[in-house]
Design brief:
Strand content: 25-35%
Strand order of the largest sheet: 6-7-8-3-9-10
Radius of gyration: 24 Å
Helix content: 25-40%
Number of domains: 2
Structural class: alpha/beta
Oligomer: single chain
Largest sheet: 6 strands, mixed
Number of helices: 11
Number of strands: 14
CATH class of the largest domain: Alpha Beta
Shape: elongated
CATH superfamily of the largest domain: P-loop containing nucleotide triphosphate hydrolases
CATH architecture of the largest domain: 3-Layer(aba) Sandwich
Length: 307
């Protein structure tokens, strides 16, 4: 649905985005992660067709984003920008109905009514945008991005400024859109949110540093380290463990091993320990948190190819 290839954007002599390629399939949420100034917003704006890349291409459903095709393609995209950008003097309903008209929605009022109900904004429909809290403005901006029922959503910090209850309702809404076949690219600093929502994560810092499923990135970082808890003193079974990893260690009732291919080797390790007389209580494959994975790639700054 979204295919960005070798995107590059410079402001003066500085490359804000440098040769980034990524894709988002229908029914998929990709989280775009990176520190402030990493190029996340610029990448979203290029994919939305709001600014042109200095190099590279963007295709939406197989159609390249060009000056000629851009207007039509932008109608298929819902874009939540970093700042809500609402008309302050207009009410919530007026903001949404005007945008519905701009997108050519045939019957905007019932569409707006559904969004107001879904995002719990109905009580604020007649309130001018200038009088809304930051969180309410964010919800109205999200409703605006959804008003034409786009198959593609580009969301820049969709839950910024929202309280936990509203944040959950927004997450539920995004999961509904994914289930409906929407392609979602979500920029966020909230790693817990990325962990909960995303099918894949793209870590960028001007360049693409990592792009894969969270579990695969965690596995790549952990390198197949497992911990096995046995009944009694684990050191009694080190000899069996070291047939698989010469550096295996024991600490109390725990054995720690590093395995090249845990999914294949763990059953064999367990069988060997049982044969040596061990009673296995628990086997755990250590997985770093997404935060650890993120910090590793950002601090290392070395691009990683998807598996």
């Amino acid at each position: 649905m979204i295919a960005a290839s070798h995107l590059t954007r410079r402001f003066g002599a500085r490359a804000v985005v440098d040769d980034i390629s990524l894709d988002v399939a229908p029914g998929e949420i990709v989280a775009l992660l990176g520190p402030n100034g990493a190029g996340k917003t610029t990448t979203l704006r290029m994919i939305a067709g709001l600014i042109r890349p200095d190099a590279g291409t963007v295709a939406i459903a197989g159609v390249e984003m060009t000056a000629v095709a851009g207007s039509q393609l932008r109608g298929r995209v819902g874009f939540l920008t970093e700042a809500p950008g609402l008309w302050d003097r207009l009410t919530v309903r007026e903001n949404l109905e005007i945008y519905a008209g701009l997108y050519g929605v045939a019957h905007p009022r019932p569409v707006v009514d559904r969004l107001l109900d879904r995002l719990e904004l109905a009580a604020h429909a007649a309130v001018r945008s200038a009088e809304l809290s930051k969180g309410m403005k964010q919800k109205v901006a999200l409703a605006r991005a959804l008003v034409h029922d786009p198959p593609i959503l580009l969301l820049d910090e969709p839950t910024a400024g929202l309280d936990p209850e509203i944040t959950k309702s927004v997450r539920d809404l995004l999961e509904e859109r994914r289930a409906a076949g929407c392609a979602l690219l979500v920029s966020t600093h909230n790693l817990d949110e990325a962990e909960r929502l995303s099918d894949r994560v793209a870590v960028i810092r001007q360049r693409l540093l990592a792009f894969d499923r969270p579990d695969i990135l965690r596995r790549r970082l952990s390198g197949g380290r497992i911990r096995i808890r046995v009944a009694g003193d684990a050191s009694r079974y080190l000899h069996a463990a070291r047939t698989f990893d010469r550096g295996a260690s024991a600490d109390g009732s725990h054995l720690a091993l590093q395995l090249a291919d845990p999914e294949t080797l763990v059953p064999a390790v367990v069988r060997a320990l049982v044969a040596a007389g061990a009673d296995i209580i628990e086997t755990q494959l250590e997985r770093p948190a997404l935060e650890d994975v993120y910090l590793h790639f950002v601090n290392a700054g070395v691009p990683q190819q998807p598996s």
